[in-house]
Specification:
This protein is mainly β. The protein contains 2 helices and 10 strands. Strands 1, 2, 3, 4, 7 and 8 form a 6-stranded antiparallel sheet that branches. The N terminus is likely disordered.
Protein backbone atom coordinates (compact mmCIF):
# COMPACT_ATOMS: atom_id res chain seq x y z
CA UNK A 1 0.00 0.00 0.00
CA UNK A 2 2.86 2.41 0.74
CA UNK A 3 3.88 2.29 -2.90
CA UNK A 4 0.38 2.89 -4.34
CA UNK A 5 0.81 6.56 -5.33
CA UNK A 6 4.06 6.04 -7.25
CA UNK A 7 2.47 2.98 -8.89
CA UNK A 8 -0.61 5.00 -9.90
CA UNK A 9 1.62 7.74 -11.27
CA UNK A 10 3.72 5.29 -13.27
CA UNK A 11 0.60 3.58 -14.62
CA UNK A 12 -0.91 6.90 -15.65
CA UNK A 13 2.29 7.95 -17.39
CA UNK A 14 2.48 4.66 -19.30
CA UNK A 15 -1.18 4.94 -20.32
CA UNK A 16 -0.60 8.49 -21.50
CA UNK A 17 2.04 7.34 -23.98
CA UNK A 18 -0.67 5.85 -26.21
CA UNK A 19 -3.03 8.82 -25.98
CA UNK A 20 -3.43 11.71 -28.38
CA UNK A 21 -1.79 15.05 -27.71
CA UNK A 22 -3.88 18.22 -27.56
CA UNK A 23 -4.24 19.98 -30.91
CA UNK A 24 -1.78 22.84 -30.40
CA UNK A 25 0.60 21.86 -27.61
CA UNK A 26 2.23 18.55 -26.75
CA UNK A 27 2.07 17.95 -22.99
CA UNK A 28 5.34 18.42 -21.16
CA UNK A 29 7.51 15.35 -20.91
CA UNK A 30 7.75 13.79 -17.47
CA UNK A 31 11.22 13.84 -16.00
CA UNK A 32 13.00 11.19 -14.00
CA UNK A 33 12.73 11.99 -10.30
CA UNK A 34 15.56 14.04 -8.86
CA UNK A 35 17.04 12.13 -5.94
CA UNK A 36 19.20 13.69 -3.26
CA UNK A 37 20.79 11.65 -0.49
CA UNK A 38 21.36 13.41 2.86
CA UNK A 39 22.89 10.94 5.29
CA UNK A 40 20.40 8.12 5.74
CA UNK A 41 17.57 10.17 4.17
CA UNK A 42 16.63 10.23 0.48
CA UNK A 43 14.61 13.02 -1.06
CA UNK A 44 12.77 12.26 -4.31
CA UNK A 45 11.23 15.11 -6.25
CA UNK A 46 9.41 14.81 -9.54
CA UNK A 47 7.34 17.05 -11.78
CA UNK A 48 4.67 15.56 -14.01
CA UNK A 49 2.43 17.29 -16.54
CA UNK A 50 -1.13 16.83 -15.29
CA UNK A 51 -2.39 16.47 -18.87
CA UNK A 52 -0.78 13.02 -18.85
CA UNK A 53 -2.66 11.89 -15.71
CA UNK A 54 -6.05 10.22 -15.61
CA UNK A 55 -9.00 11.74 -13.75
CA UNK A 56 -8.68 8.96 -11.15
CA UNK A 57 -5.07 9.88 -10.44
CA UNK A 58 -5.88 13.60 -10.35
CA UNK A 59 -8.64 12.95 -7.81
CA UNK A 60 -6.24 10.80 -5.76
CA UNK A 61 -3.85 13.73 -5.54
CA UNK A 62 -6.73 16.15 -4.93
CA UNK A 63 -5.78 18.39 -7.87
CA UNK A 64 -7.24 19.76 -11.09
CA UNK A 65 -5.17 19.14 -14.18
CA UNK A 66 -4.67 20.93 -17.45
CA UNK A 67 -2.31 21.37 -20.39
CA UNK A 68 -0.57 24.17 -18.50
CA UNK A 69 -0.42 22.56 -15.04
CA UNK A 70 2.48 20.57 -13.58
CA UNK A 71 2.23 18.35 -10.49
CA UNK A 72 5.22 18.54 -8.15
CA UNK A 73 5.62 15.50 -5.90
CA UNK A 74 8.21 15.28 -3.11
CA UNK A 75 8.86 12.33 -0.82
CA UNK A 76 11.34 12.00 2.02
CA UNK A 77 12.38 8.51 3.06
CA UNK A 78 14.71 7.10 5.71
CA UNK A 79 16.57 3.83 5.45
CA UNK A 80 17.81 1.58 2.66
CA UNK A 81 15.74 1.39 -0.54
CA UNK A 82 13.05 -1.25 -0.25
CA UNK A 83 13.07 -0.94 3.54
CA UNK A 84 12.73 2.83 3.66
CA UNK A 85 9.95 4.59 5.53
CA UNK A 86 8.29 7.95 4.97
CA UNK A 87 9.51 10.78 7.17
CA UNK A 88 7.73 14.07 7.90
CA UNK A 89 9.57 17.09 6.54
CA UNK A 90 9.40 20.83 6.20
CA UNK A 91 9.42 21.69 2.50
CA UNK A 92 9.40 25.08 0.83
CA UNK A 93 10.17 25.98 -2.74
CA UNK A 94 9.46 27.83 -5.92
CA UNK A 95 9.13 27.27 -9.65
CA UNK A 96 11.30 29.59 -11.73
CA UNK A 97 10.73 30.15 -15.47
CA UNK A 98 13.37 31.13 -18.04
CA UNK A 99 12.72 34.83 -17.44
CA UNK A 100 13.42 34.42 -13.73
CA UNK A 101 9.80 34.75 -12.59
CA UNK A 102 9.22 32.83 -9.37
CA UNK A 103 6.02 31.06 -8.38
CA UNK A 104 6.02 29.94 -4.74
CA UNK A 105 4.94 26.34 -4.28
CA UNK A 106 2.10 25.63 -1.86
CA UNK A 107 3.10 22.09 -0.86
CA UNK A 108 0.67 20.06 1.19
CA UNK A 109 0.82 16.64 2.80
CA UNK A 110 -0.70 13.66 1.04
CA UNK A 111 -0.98 10.44 3.02
CA UNK A 112 -1.80 6.98 1.74
CA UNK A 113 -1.39 4.33 4.40
CA UNK A 114 2.20 4.58 5.68
CA UNK A 115 3.26 6.66 2.67
CA UNK A 116 3.68 10.41 3.12
CA UNK A 117 4.36 12.70 0.17
CA UNK A 118 4.05 16.43 -0.45
CA UNK A 119 2.26 17.78 -3.51
CA UNK A 120 1.79 21.11 -5.25
CA UNK A 121 0.76 22.33 -8.67
CA UNK A 122 2.18 25.13 -10.76
CA UNK A 123 1.15 26.74 -14.07
CA UNK A 124 3.50 26.89 -17.04
CA UNK A 125 3.20 28.69 -20.37
CA UNK A 126 4.47 26.51 -23.21
CA UNK A 127 7.04 26.57 -24.54
CA UNK A 128 9.00 27.28 -21.39
CA UNK A 129 11.26 25.49 -18.98
CA UNK A 130 10.55 25.44 -15.29
CA UNK A 131 13.22 24.92 -12.69
CA UNK A 132 12.07 23.92 -9.24
CA UNK A 133 14.10 24.88 -6.19
CA UNK A 134 13.09 22.92 -3.11
CA UNK A 135 14.42 23.31 0.41
CA UNK A 136 13.77 20.15 2.36
CA UNK A 137 14.39 19.51 6.04
CA UNK A 138 13.44 16.05 7.27
CA UNK A 139 12.95 15.37 10.96
CA UNK A 140 16.43 14.83 12.35
CA UNK A 141 18.27 15.65 9.12
CA UNK A 142 20.30 18.56 7.80
CA UNK A 143 18.54 20.86 5.30
CA UNK A 144 18.94 19.92 1.63
CA UNK A 145 18.27 21.68 -1.66
CA UNK A 146 16.82 19.79 -4.63
CA UNK A 147 16.67 21.17 -8.20
CA UNK A 148 14.36 19.79 -10.87
CA UNK A 149 13.60 20.93 -14.46
CA UNK A 150 10.59 20.40 -16.76
CA UNK A 151 10.55 21.41 -20.44
CA UNK A 152 7.29 21.62 -22.41
CA UNK A 153 7.47 20.81 -26.12
CA UNK A 154 5.57 22.94 -28.64
CA UNK A 155 4.37 20.96 -31.67
CA UNK A 156 1.87 23.52 -33.00
Amino acid sequence: MRRILPLLLATALLAACGGEAPKAVQPMAAQEPAVTQVGEYSIRASAVPTASLSETVLRGYGITGGDDVVLVLVGVRKGPEGQDVSVPASITGAAIDLQGRRQPLQLRELRSGDLLDYVATVKVDAPDTLRFELQVTAEGAAPATVDLRVTPVNVG
